[in-house]
Design brief:
The chain is an alpha/beta fold. The protein is about 45% helix and about 15% strand. The protein contains 20 helices and 12 strands. β7, α13 and β8 form a beta-alpha-beta unit. α13 packs across α19 and α17 packs across α20. It starts with a helix and ends with a helix.
């Protein structure tokens, strides 16, 4: 924990980095000290500076943060010579952070990355010398996000919103958590109304799919599309893929992710049950993720079955590689049409083809019967899987083509 001398060093460092700003102006951007001291009598009685106390002890103690009155603070000219910042208010292992922030930076190495583990003092210092800041999937429910955005506006740092999901409350009823009965519709509507208001203060929006761009175009003028891609070091060597042999059973994997995909899974539960009755000895079935354990049902029907909890990213790729085909069932909703095709990319990187529902991004990247399969109905899911159980060579051929497609279009 920083001492008072260290906090003084922090202020001195800010003044050195931004010699165009006075000490008083810098302090005015850090805290509403008058309100802080008025609220906390013990700190007022101690004689300590309120700004010093909050940045040294207060935020660690869970003290109330009194945001400066930014409306009363003079806005600055843009710091054009500054740096670019990527910010995501969650852990570094989150998929959105990986695909929208970390993976692109592996190649560009041109931005400072701020995440949940970055200290508050370091984060503020980086914003003071920034020319632009990318907020990945921001939420107005995050006090840190709101403060950083207000700080950016006052310092005239360009605000870029990067999203890989719909933010619009108009489509709350189609969100996976609502459809799966995990979250209350009215709460989701409230949250999305709150979070979508962030767009009103953005200078630019970057998103992962055409559907997101089209649906948000009325709210923000400057929108660009940057598709999710995976660094090539995560791809297996192509020469190793031809050595993979499909033995007596086709190893099928369902990547469920979170419990919000329960409704999506229901689109294939019927076909899988029928396949278990008709072909119990021709395939094994693994579930990876948080959808409730289905193994007892299929084991009872004679299918070799396995349930795996959520694992980290590298472990997930390793599990994919142990299988022959990955299932990606998705309800045909506007939310799923807006989703990117990361499951195609991840499976293909391990030399595994997928069967996916006919939602926008998967239809765009899969040529049916060549580098994967697209299914629109339960009958098509059943027919496709039963054909592949009898013709495993088709899986091998499609998997190699999926790998080549992902290298060509979705690798960094």
């Amino acid at each position: 924990m920083p001492s008072q001398d260290q906090f003084a060093d922090f202020l001195s460092n800010l003044a050195r980095l931004r010699p165009d700003l006075s000490d008083a102006y810098i302090k005015s951007l850090l805290l509403d000290e008058k309100q802080y001291l008025s609220f906390y009598q013990d700190i007022r009685n101690s004689g300590l500076s309120g700004t010093y106390h909050y940045y040294t002890y207060g935020y660690k103690e869970g003290r109330e943060f009194f945001e400066p009155n930014f409306r009363a603070i003079k806005k600055l000219e843009r710091f054009e010579s500054g740096q670019s910042i990527i910010f995501f208010d969650t852990v570094k292992t989150n998929a959105s952070f990986l695909y929208r922030g970390y993976f692109p930076e592996v190649r560009k190495n041109s931005s400072v990355i701020i995440h949940q583990d970055t200290s508050f003092l370091d984060s503020v210092k980086e914003i003071f010398i920034a020319k632009e800041m990318v907020f990945i999937r921001p939420s107005n429910g995050s006090r840190k996000t709101k403060y950083f955005m207000h700080l950016c506006r006052t310092l005239n740092v360009k605000i870029i919103i990067d999203v890989d999901d719909l933010l619009l409350p108009d489509y709350s009823e189609y969100k996976g958590a609502v459809r799966s009965g995990i979250s209350d519709y009215h709460q989701i509507l409230k949250d999305m109304t709150r979070d979508s208001s962030i767009l009103l203060g953005a200078d630019q929006m970057v998103c992962s799919t055409k559907t997101i761009a089209n649906l948000h175009s009325d709210l923000i003028e400057n929108i660009s599309i940057s598709k999710n891609k995976l660094p090539r070091e995560y791809f297996l060597p192509r020469e190793s893929l031809g050595k993979k042999i499909i033995n007596r059973k086709v190893r099928v994997l369902y990547l469920s992710g979170s419990k919000t995909h329960l409704k999506d899974y229901s689109t294939i539960s019927g076909p899988l049950m029928k396949l278990a009755q008709d072909y119990p000895n021709k395939f094994s079935l693994s579930f990876l993720g948080m959808v409730s354990d289905q193994t007892s049902i299929f084991s009872h029907l004679g299918v070799e079955c396995n349930f795996l909890p959520l694992v980290n990213f590298n472990e997930m790729l390793s599990e994919i590689n142990k299988h022959d085909i990955v299932l990606v069932p998705l309800e045909k909703t506007v939310f799923n049409d807006a989703k990117s095709n990361i499951k195609f990319i991840e499976a293909a990187s391990q030399g595994v083809a997928i069967i996916a529902s006919s939602v926008a991004e998967y239809v765009d990247c899969i040529t049916n019967n060549e580098n994967g399969w697209i299914c629109s109905t339960e009958d098509e899911w059943y027919a496709t899987l039963s054909y592949l159980f009898d013709n495993p060579e088709a899986i091998t051929n499609a998997s190699l083509k999926a790998y080549d497609s992902a290298i060509a279009g979705y690798s960094l």
